Amino acid sequence: MDAEAEDGFREFVASRSSALLKTAVLLSGGDRHAAEDLLQNALIKAAGRWQRIDEPEAYVRQILYRQQISRWRLKWRRRELTVAEPPEHGSGPDDTSAAAELRLLMRGALARLTPRQRTVLVLRYFEDLPEADVARILGCSVGTVRSTTHRSLARLRALAPELRALAPELRALGPEAPGTPGARPAPSRDFSPMEVR
């Protein structure tokens, strides 16, 4: 890599690494150390091809996604996740503590999803990618992305019903899961004798 390309790479890393790290943290289920490793490996791969890359951020993000997919496909991956406990609640509620509590709850809930479910949700809702792009990145069909998204959101609702109480504006989570406080009863269907015939 020549000096000009090296300067361009250093500038890219300085300006975009924090945004890329946020994505990597979400992809790794809140494990910051794994996210740093994921991003570092992606940047190393990008550095080797730097002079031939047209869209550096898109290229690095693609590497992040593919590395994460490789990690959750490996059979020897860790089954145990270590997550720090949230801090004690302060004496007075304010917007900062509510936002921090929401982030901690979301990170914990995402960490309890399977890596595939977490990846689909991050790509669909954090990266705001359409289903077709997510399917292309994951190497599956659009129908698989839709069903995985549906199951992932249902599992997220079941694992963390407290998210709805903290942030009612989270419409991506959909209606409350049955059996949670404030949940709407599931619609029942009684068949009349006329319908059964």
- Give helix % range: 55-70%
| Percentage of residues in DSSP E strands | under 5%
Structural class: mainly alpha
**Biggest sheet: strands, sense, closure?**
none
Shape: globular
- Count every beta strand, where a strand is a DSSP E run of 2 or more residues: 0
Features:
0% strand, mainly alpha, 197 residues, globular, disordered C terminus, 9 helices
Account of the protein in words:
With 197 residues, the chain is mainly α. Helices cover 63% and strands 0% of the residues. The protein has helices at 3-27, 32-48, 56-73, 95-112, 115-126, 131-138, 142-159, 162-166, 193-196. Helix 5 packs across helix 7 (142-159). The longest helix has 25 residues, at 3-27. Mean pLDDT is 77; it is low at 173-197.
What is the topology?
Elements: H1 3-27, H2 32-48, H3 56-73, H4 95-112, H5 115-126, H6 131-138, H7 142-159, H8 162-166, H9 193-196
Helix pairs in contact: 1-2, 1-3, 2-3, 5-7, 6-7
How would you summarize this macromolecular structure in one to three sentences?
The protein is an all-alpha fold. The protein contains nine helices and no strands.
